[in-house]
Amino acid sequence: MTKTGNYNPTIGMETHVELRTNSKMFCGCPADHFGKKPNTQTCPVCLGLPGALPVPNKRAIEWCIVAGLALNCKINKASKFDRKHYFYPDLPKGYQISQYDEPIAINGFLDTSFGRIGIERVHIEEDTGKLQHKKINGENLTLVDFNRCGVPLIEIVTKPDIHSGAQAKDFEQKLQQIIRTLKVSDCDMEKGSMRLEANISWGLDWGYKVEVKNLNSFRFVDKAIEYELKRQRQILEKGEIPNQETRGWDENKNVTVSQRFKETASDYRYFPEPDIPPMEFTDTFIAEIKKKIPKLPAEKKAKLIETYKVRGSYAEIIVSQEGLLELAEKVFDIGKTKGLEADALAGILVNQKIKADTTPEKVLKLVKVKKERVGDIGEVTKWVDAAIIAMPSAISDYKKGKVNAIMAVVGRVMQLSRGKANPDIVKKLLEDRLK
Amino acid sequence: MKKDILSKDQIKHIAKLANLSLDDKELQIYTRQLASVLNYMEILQEVDTKHVPPTYQVLDRTTNIYREDVVGECFSQKEAISQGKKIYEGFFTTRNVFEEARVGNRTLEPSQRKVNDKYNAILTTADPKGVVGHKDLFMTKGIETTAGSRVLEGYIPQYNSTVVSNFEKAGLKTKYKLNQDAWGHGSSGENSDFGPTKNPWNTKKVAGGSSSGSVVVVATGKVDVATATDTCGSIRMPSSYCNVCGIKPTYGAVSRYGVIAFASSLDCPGVLSNSVENLQKYFDLISAKDSRDATSQSESREKKMGKLKRIIGVPMEFLGEGIDSEVKKIFLKAVEIFKKANYKIIDVSLPHTKYGIAAYYILAPTETASNLARYDGVRYGNDRSYFGPEAKRRIMLGTFVSSAGYTDRYYEKAARIRTLIIRDLEKAYDIVDAILAPVSPIPPFNIGEKVDDPLQLYLMDIYAAPASLSGTPSLAIPCGFTKDELPVGMQIMGPRWSEEMLFELGEEYQKATQWHKFRPNSKEMIYDKNW
């Protein structure tokens, strides 16, 4: 049953981000639920008591708009909430208040190092409670805590524009940077305030997709996608179609496993939430919000490259860590007065993993130390010799004219030096040696 | 559509979506009954709704109702878990979600609840010194609240509804919690899981529903005021059947916070009393914006009505086929009273009246299936096997008409018909101040007479549907008796937020008549005067 024969890795990401508002999405309970005693932050609304009614949190709505705008989305002027129905003990009302056909934001994009990824939608919804599974007195029970229930979530859904695990990883890292810059969420994957799911297939024409959950680190995103693509490819090459299902990433075995999860039939029976009047956003209102958006990582990176002539790879790392950019700019400005190149200083910041709370003076002192260290050409030369012996094919490629092959050897030297060597000097030494 | 559209397998699928476990007999019955109801709904297909937008809410175009991001009070852990059946170290517990659900349906033990009064109107006596009776849909902190369903038997709410709080703030304490059709599902009062309420005018007859207990305690003078709710006639119908005055307010006039939801876009909490004058007093007490109910915050509430035209409409569609001749005669006599009071009476047409029931019985069950999804027995109450037959029927119906592949034909279609019904009324109110209509096509009927035919019972709501679907107010008042000495009521309907005018009209009528003064225990008055 070959449908296309075309193998095109096709991946879409769904990312849930918990907003760091003071209160929950539809009631006044605190939104900060991490590590609290079970069921101590609930009220009639988030506990789904009979007769309770939701009233939306204004700030959460605004922050969803902020996120949408930061991801280059169009904001729907008319938006509304809908009920999404399924039965699960962590969902007290039997439906989740979410958004169906009029999400707050649509049609945006985010540029990754591997190209542009389309953003299908950004919408707002409420989080569920938390389940634990435990054997108590010989009985298998599920324990339910509703502290997290009703915490505002935004869901960011990409178009199926992603083609590799590395690209998905890059997308999610950039997304995290953006959301953190906006200060609407701490995006802490360990605490679950950023949760990732990947929809993976070898192309939409094959007529299936596999959803992979439980991707709680960027590394796992990459690994799980690559694993899953391989697994599906093997099935497709046998002439079969992989099951459309939900799988989870098993971080111990490095495999995805089929999940017996949400045993309910999936017909969510969406309909407009009758308890909440619709939303309307005027152009002025959207413009006001737009004004408040801080400079995003992509803009900052561009500034570093253009103004300070820092190489892209350094700039990217500098903008990705909170506070590092501010330090870097100070260091570059002082460095300039001393005739030090910003790119070299950026190299120190990046390679020596300088923390954002370091003073610029301390960083500049490192320049001297470094100079001394790299001045010891004898030691570096030893590493260079060892690398040349270890990598004959790269050397011969380089000699044949593949200039870039030298970078692999530089990498090897850096490895041998445990990062102490200055790559520029290493490269120069190598070039001299191989003339 | 052929009758066999519903196979037993489909019903099984719907039951699964609705999280109900049905036995074979139930599957069979629901397959037949739902098919008959769905067949009736085919009537909607004759209306062209291509260019009609759907109506999901009636809110005077209110938008952007939010709360500020401020932390408020929470339950203590003790309060939060107080109603859970199985608690473990502060957690609610439930059967392990990875294990298969127990299949099959056990037969429920009969309820141990005892009957408190000869009409079976009172479910709980709270404070004998209290003065208000509350329908058992109103959450009363610390006082059992059941919604008339065994699912909530024994449930002690952790909070008060806004309406109950407002009464308490005015010093009016809760005396009774009152019987009702479970969840508000019914127009006769027979669908309570704790037995039908009896009509004090004739205990063989139904009291009318769903606010059956509420009208009985007012009719029999046990309280001066009782709360009730009207989703499609649940205040007006029992008022009419027990000779009581009731106001079904504008949708959004009275907060729904803490009122157990039946159909959220239609539910209107209101009050019952023995005269319009009293009714207005109590209505004023509870009619207010509530920050906890986003649908109670329409700005139009503040608008004053324009000058009255002194023209009253009588919808011809209500007086054609299906109305009992005696009811019609009594109603037309009531119309004469307004004529004598110098109102111009004209015929108005509400051409989409006949589609009202079909639209209503798609929209309301869809919402009720959703609203009843929270009753899983984990945090409070009993599990879903405790739902009574009518609740199960409506959950099944609502789940079906909103399920994948059927929404366009049913739910969306009904939402568009709703728009047409609203337009009918808007057109009428351009010409008339108010509309007079009977409440029920027939007088109170015998208990048990119609229980096997849900569709016949659904059709009883036909005159209630226009005001409900349009979110407009309607005042039900007594207007006479049949020769069998059974009360007949009429409704005075008006545009949104016209309650004040309705009360004026009602008072004017009650100044000219005595019908509202008759009590079940003083029937002799009926023939004293010939109205």
TrEMBL record, chain A:
<keyword id="KW-0808">Transferase</keyword>
<dbReference type="InterPro" id="IPR004413">
    <property type="entry name" value="GatB"/>
</dbReference>
<dbReference type="GO" id="GO:0070681">
    <property type="term" value="P:glutaminyl-tRNAGln biosynthesis via transamidation"/>
</dbReference>
<feature type="domain" description="Asn/Gln amidotransferase">
    <location>
        <begin position="260"/>
        <end position="434"/>
    </location>
</feature>
<dbReference type="GO" id="GO:0016740">
    <property type="term" value="F:transferase activity"/>
</dbReference>
<dbReference type="InterPro" id="IPR018027">
    <property type="entry name" value="Asn/Gln_amidotransferase"/>
</dbReference>
<dbReference type="InterPro" id="IPR014746">
    <property type="entry name" value="Gln_synth/guanido_kin_cat_dom"/>
</dbReference>
<dbReference type="GO" id="GO:0006412">
    <property type="term" value="P:translation"/>
</dbReference>
<dbReference type="GO" id="GO:0005524">
    <property type="term" value="F:ATP binding"/>
</dbReference>
<dbReference type="InterPro" id="IPR006075">
    <property type="entry name" value="Asn/Gln-tRNA_Trfase_suB/E_cat"/>
</dbReference>
<dbReference type="InterPro" id="IPR017958">
    <property type="entry name" value="Gln-tRNA_amidoTrfase_suB_CS"/>
</dbReference>
<dbReference type="Pfam" id="PF02637">
    <property type="entry name" value="GatB_Yqey"/>
</dbReference>
<comment type="subunit">
    <text>Heterotrimer of A, B and C subunits.</text>
</comment>
<keyword id="KW-0648">Protein biosynthesis</keyword>
<dbReference type="InterPro" id="IPR023168">
    <property type="entry name" value="GatB_Yqey_C_2"/>
</dbReference>
<protein>
    <recommendedName>
        <fullName>Aspartyl/glutamyl-tRNA(Asn/Gln) amidotransferase subunit B</fullName>
        <ecNumber>6.3.5.-</ecNumber>
    </recommendedName>
</protein>
<dbReference type="InterPro" id="IPR003789">
    <property type="entry name" value="Asn/Gln_tRNA_amidoTrase-B-like"/>
</dbReference>
<dbReference type="GO" id="GO:0050566">
    <property type="term" value="F:asparaginyl-tRNA synthase (glutamine-hydrolyzing) activity"/>
</dbReference>
<keyword id="KW-0067">ATP-binding</keyword>
<keyword id="KW-0547">Nucleotide-binding</keyword>
<comment type="similarity">
    <text>Belongs to the GatB/GatE family. GatB subfamily.</text>
</comment>
<dbReference type="Pfam" id="PF02934">
    <property type="entry name" value="GatB_N"/>
</dbReference>
Automatic annotation (TrEMBL), chain B:
<dbReference type="InterPro" id="IPR036113">
    <property type="entry name" value="Asp/Glu-ADT_sf_sub_c"/>
</dbReference>
<keyword id="KW-0436">Ligase</keyword>
<dbReference type="InterPro" id="IPR004412">
    <property type="entry name" value="GatA"/>
</dbReference>
<dbReference type="InterPro" id="IPR000120">
    <property type="entry name" value="Amidase"/>
</dbReference>
<dbReference type="InterPro" id="IPR003837">
    <property type="entry name" value="GatC"/>
</dbReference>
<dbReference type="GO" id="GO:0030956">
    <property type="term" value="C:glutamyl-tRNA(Gln) amidotransferase complex"/>
</dbReference>
<dbReference type="InterPro" id="IPR036928">
    <property type="entry name" value="AS_sf"/>
</dbReference>
<feature type="domain" description="Amidase">
    <location>
        <begin position="135"/>
        <end position="502"/>
    </location>
</feature>
<keyword id="KW-0547">Nucleotide-binding</keyword>
<protein>
    <recommendedName>
        <fullName>Multifunctional fusion protein</fullName>
        <ecNumber>6.3.5.7</ecNumber>
        <ecNumber>6.3.5.-</ecNumber>
    </recommendedName>
</protein>
<dbReference type="GO" id="GO:0050566">
    <property type="term" value="F:asparaginyl-tRNA synthase (glutamine-hydrolyzing) activity"/>
</dbReference>
<keyword id="KW-0808">Transferase</keyword>
<feature type="active site" description="Acyl-ester intermediate">
    <location>
        <position position="234"/>
    </location>
</feature>
<dbReference type="GO" id="GO:0006412">
    <property type="term" value="P:translation"/>
</dbReference>
<comment type="function">
    <text>Allows the formation of correctly charged Asn-tRNA(Asn) or Gln-tRNA(Gln) through the transamidation of misacylated Asp-tRNA(Asn) or Glu-tRNA(Gln) in organisms which lack either or both of asparaginyl-tRNA or glutaminyl-tRNA synthetases. The reaction takes place in the presence of glutamine and ATP through an activated phospho-Asp-tRNA(Asn) or phospho-Glu-tRNA(Gln).</text>
</comment>
<feature type="active site" description="Charge relay system">
    <location>
        <position position="135"/>
    </location>
</feature>
<dbReference type="Pfam" id="PF02686">
    <property type="entry name" value="GatC"/>
</dbReference>
<dbReference type="GO" id="GO:0006450">
    <property type="term" value="P:regulation of translational fidelity"/>
</dbReference>
<dbReference type="GO" id="GO:0016740">
    <property type="term" value="F:transferase activity"/>
</dbReference>
<keyword id="KW-0067">ATP-binding</keyword>
<comment type="subunit">
    <text>Heterotrimer of A, B and C subunits.</text>
</comment>
<dbReference type="InterPro" id="IPR023631">
    <property type="entry name" value="Amidase_dom"/>
</dbReference>
